[in-house]
C-alpha cells in the first residue's frame, strides 16, 4: 500500500503525541499512587493526616505556581529545551522522595517533583493544541484526557502493589527509569526548537505575589485540619496574607504590560467558563482519589492493593468517556456534553452521601464508575472550548491558566479532605461530608458549563 504524505504526517503526529503523553503522565501517575499510601505514610512518619496531606498538596501547589512561569519560559527558551528541563527536575525530585528521611524532607522533594511536573504539564497542552489545530482540538484533547485518566486507573493499583511488595519509597523510585525513558524518546522524536529572536521579560513581581498567595490560602486549610482555631494566628495570618497577596497581584496584572497571568482573559465568556469547569473537575477528581482509599482502608478494612483496585473504576469511567466526549464535542460543541457529564457527576456525589459501613463494596465501586464517567464527559469539551475560542497567540497563556486552575482545584480538594477527616468522627462521616462538598461544587460546575460555547460558537 502506498503511504501518502498525509499518512506520514499523521504517523509522525501520533508518535509525537505518544512521547509527549508519556512524560505528561508521570506526574498524574505518581500523584494517584501516593493517594493510596497516605495512611502508610502517616503511620511510618507518625504524622497527622493534615501534615501528610501536604505530600499531595505541596506537589499540586508547586505545579500550580510553576505553570504560569513555564508559559513564559516555553516562549523564551523553546518547548523542547523546557520539556527536557522539566523531566530532569522531576527525576531529581523522584529520587529525593525515594530517599527521604522524614516527613519534612519528603514534602520538600515532592515540591521539587511538582516544579518538574509544572514545567511539563502546560507544555503538553500547548504542544498538542498547536499540532492538532482548532478542528481536531476536541479529538486530541479527548485522547490526552483518556491517556492521563489512566493515572487514576493504574496509579492506585500500582501503588497498592508497590506498598505491599516493596514499600512506599518505591512509589517514587519507579518514576526514575520511566522518566529516563521519556528523556531518551524526547531527544529523538521532538523537533528542535527554532531560534528565539527576542525573549519577553519575566513578570518577577507576579511570581512573588501569585505563588505565595495560593500557598497562604491552602495553608489555612492545612492548619485548620491540624486543629487550629479559625481565629488563631496560625490560621488567620496565612489567610490575611494570602488574600492581600492575590489582591495585590490582581491590581498588578491589570496595570502591568505583560503580567504572568493575564486576568483580562477572564473577560472572555467561553474562557472563563472553561477554566472554572476545569478547576472544579480537578477538585472533584483529586478529592475522590484521596477519600475513597481512606474509606476502603478504614471503614472496609482493606489493604492498600485491594483499596487501589476498588478505586480504579473511577479512572476507568473517565478514561472511557474522555475520548468519546472529545470526538463528539468537535461536532456538537462543548456545552451540552459538559452539562450532561456534570449532571451525572452531581447525582453520583449525592449517592455517595447515602453510604454507610454496611454498604457493599460493589455499590461504592459503581458510584465511583459513574462519577468518573460524568467527569470524563466534562473535561475534554471544556479543554477543547479554550482552543476553539482563543486566538492562536493567546493559546499558550490560556493553556497555562487552564491547567494551573485545574491543579489548584486538585490542591483544594486534597486539603478539604484532610480538613473534613480531621473534624468528623469516623470514615463514614468523613466520606459523606466530602461528597456533600463535591455535590455542591458540581452545582457550581453546571452553572459554569451552561456558559460554554455550543455548536458553531467561536
Automatic annotation (TrEMBL):
Species of the source: Amycolatopsis lurida NRRL 2430
Q: Where are the transmembrane segments?
A: 12-38, 50-70, 82-101, 107-128, 140-162, 168-190, 202-225, 231-251, 271-296, 302-325, 337-355, 361-380, 401-421, 433-452
Give the primary localization class: membrane
Query: Gene3D superfamilies annotated for this entry?
Result: MFS general substrate transporter like domains
| Protein keywords | Cell membrane, Membrane, Transmembrane, Transmembrane helix, Transport
> Major facilitator superfamily (MFS) profile domain: from which residue to which, for each copy?
16-451
Q: Name one GO molecular function term.
A: transmembrane transporter activity
Cell compartment(s), UniProt: Cell membrane
Q: What is this protein called?
A: EmrB/QacA family drug resistance transporter
| Entries under SUPFAM superfamilies matching the protein | MFS general substrate transporter
Amino acid at each position: 500500500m502506498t503511504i501518502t504524505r498525509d499518512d506520514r504526517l499523521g504517523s509522525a503526529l501520533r508518535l509525537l503525541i505518544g512521547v509527549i503523553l508519556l512524560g505528561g503522565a508521570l506526574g498524574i501517575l505518581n500523584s494517584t499512587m501516593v493517594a493510596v499510601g497516605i495512611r502508610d505514610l502517616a503511620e511510618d512518619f507518625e504524622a497527622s493526616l493534615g501534615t501528610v496531606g501536604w505530600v499531595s498538596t505541596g506537589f499540586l501547589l508547586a505545579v500550580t505556581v510553576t505553570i504560569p512561569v513555564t508559559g513564559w519560559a516555553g516562549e523564551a527558551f523553546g518547548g523542547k529545551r523546557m520539556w527536557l528541563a522539566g523531566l530532569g527536575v522531576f527525576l531529581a525530585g523522584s529520587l529525593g522522595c525515594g530517599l527521604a528521611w522524614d516527613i519534612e524532607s519528603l514534602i520538600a522533594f515532592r515540591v521539587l517533583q511538582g516544579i518538574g511536573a509544572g514545567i511539563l504539564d502546560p507544555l503538553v497542552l500547548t504542544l498538542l493544541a498547536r499540532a492538532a489545530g482548532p478542528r481536531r482540538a476536541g479529538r486530541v484533547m479527548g485522547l490526552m484526557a483518556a491517556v492521563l485518566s489512566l493515572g487514576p486507573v493504574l496509579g492506585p493499583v500500582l501503588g497498592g502493589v508497590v506498598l505491599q511488595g516493596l514499600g512506599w519509597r518505591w512509589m517514587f523510585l519507579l518514576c526514575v527509569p520511566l522518566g529516563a525513558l521519556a528523556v531518551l524518546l524526547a531527544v529523538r522524536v521532538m523537533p528542535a526548537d527554532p531560534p528565539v529572536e527576542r525573549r519577553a521579560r519575566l513578570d518577577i513581581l507576579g511570581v512573588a505575589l501569585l505563588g505565595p498567595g495560593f500557598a497562604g490560602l491552602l495553608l489555612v486549610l492545612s492548619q485548620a485540619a491540624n486543629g487550629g482555631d479559625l481565629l488563631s494566628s496560625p490560621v488567620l495570618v496565612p489567610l490575611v496574607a494570602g488574600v492581600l497577596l492575590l489582591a495585590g497581584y490582581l491590581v498588578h496584572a491589570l496595570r502591568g504590560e505583560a503580567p504572568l497571568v493575564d486576568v483580562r482573559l477572564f473577560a472572555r465568556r467561553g474562557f472563563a467558563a472553561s477554566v472554572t469547569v476545569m478547576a472544579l473537575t480537578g477538585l472533584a477528581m483529586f478529592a475522590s482519589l484521596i477519600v475513597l482509599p481512606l474509606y476502603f482502608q478504614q471503614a472496609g478494612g482493606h489493604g492498600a492493593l485491594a483499596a487501589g483496585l476498588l478505586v480504579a473504576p473511577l479512572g476507568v469511567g473517565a478514561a472511557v468517556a474522555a475520548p468519546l466526549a472529545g470526538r463528539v464535542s468537535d461536532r456538537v460543541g462543548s456545552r451540552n456534553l459538559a452539562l450532561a457529564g456534570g449532571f451525572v457527576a452531581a447525582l453520583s456525589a449525592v449517592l455517595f452521601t447515602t453510604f454507610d459501613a454496611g454498604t457493599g463494596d460493589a455499590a461504592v465501586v459503581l458510584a465511583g464508575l459513574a462519577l468518573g464517567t460524568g467527569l470524563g464527559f466534562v473535561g475534554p469539551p471544556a479543554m477543547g472550548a479554550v482552543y476553539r475560542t482563543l486566538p492562536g497567540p493567546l493559546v499558550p497563556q490560556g493553556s497555562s491558566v487552564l491547567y494551573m486552575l485545574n491543579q489548584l482545584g486538585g490542591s483544594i480538594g486534597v486539603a478539604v479532605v484532610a480538613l473534613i477527616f480531621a473534624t468528623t468522627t469516623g470514615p463514614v462521616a468523613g466520606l459523606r461530608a466530602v461528597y456533600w462538598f463535591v455535590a455542591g461544587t458540581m452545582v457550581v460546575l453546571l452553572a459554569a458549563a451552561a456558559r460554554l460555547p455550543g455548536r458553531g460558537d467561536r
